[in-house]
Amino acid sequence: MTSLLPFAPGDKFVTASDLDESARFPTGRGRILQFAADWTPKATCATGHTGLISSLTIDRAGNLHALDPQARARNSYGPDGQPISAFAALAPMALGSMIALDDGNVLIGEHMVGDIPGFSGRGKVYRVDAAGNVLAEYDTETNGGMGGFLGVTHIALAPDGETLFHSSETGAHVYAHDLASNRRLGAVFSRADPPPLVFGIAAPGDGSLIVACGGDMRRIAPGEGELRRYAMPAGRGWAVPVLRTGGATFWALDFFGGTIALVDTASGDVIDHRDLGLGKCLTGIAEVPA
Prior knowledge:
By secondary structure, this protein is mainly beta. Helices cover 0% and strands 46% of the residues.
């Protein structure tokens, strides 16, 4: 495992696994690219694992965490760019999504569900402290996605801090879960138009959700329906929305095309669109607050 450069305000980190073209599923050597605020390249970091990094999160202490569910691996880096030990007590699992909480704990989603060799898991969400001790586990609803093995692939938290939204990518539904009572609340959005697939989700903070649907992004009112569609640049792999600090804009990631767009949350205007050349591995971005 190599290191990153010391973090600076506005620095961006993106997933950039070096793919094995002969592999059946997108799989390769884990890499993270570090860019300056103006997208000037700064560093390339190898995680030392073979899989596919699914997400990046910067926690409240400024540490960067990379989750690789295929490798059942976690890599963490301090603000100085050096590798650190984090969540050491947490057993290796196919974890793929994380939310950093204000109290220093995290919510972390289990990417896989079922017993398919190499893709097995329970599809749960865990509340974990900084040492990796599991404080609670939530019996979340999953549907397996198209392959039948995808569990909780994306998570977002409502403003109340107790309602968790989650999806099994390539399935049709976004679900809600009451964390306080550990109770499933059912689907709050089900895509009906073809193809009936949803991917990543984000919560802007006003009670709505942004849902990635491949060809576009949609803003929905959970349980009530669609509010608007964001017209994205040409592409069929718009799979991950990531809110920036404050929620006025969000990053949209095209998994197949390896491009990234910056979108105004209110107007839908595409402010920036750039080709990072990271097709089938651009699954996450994290940004140091400016």
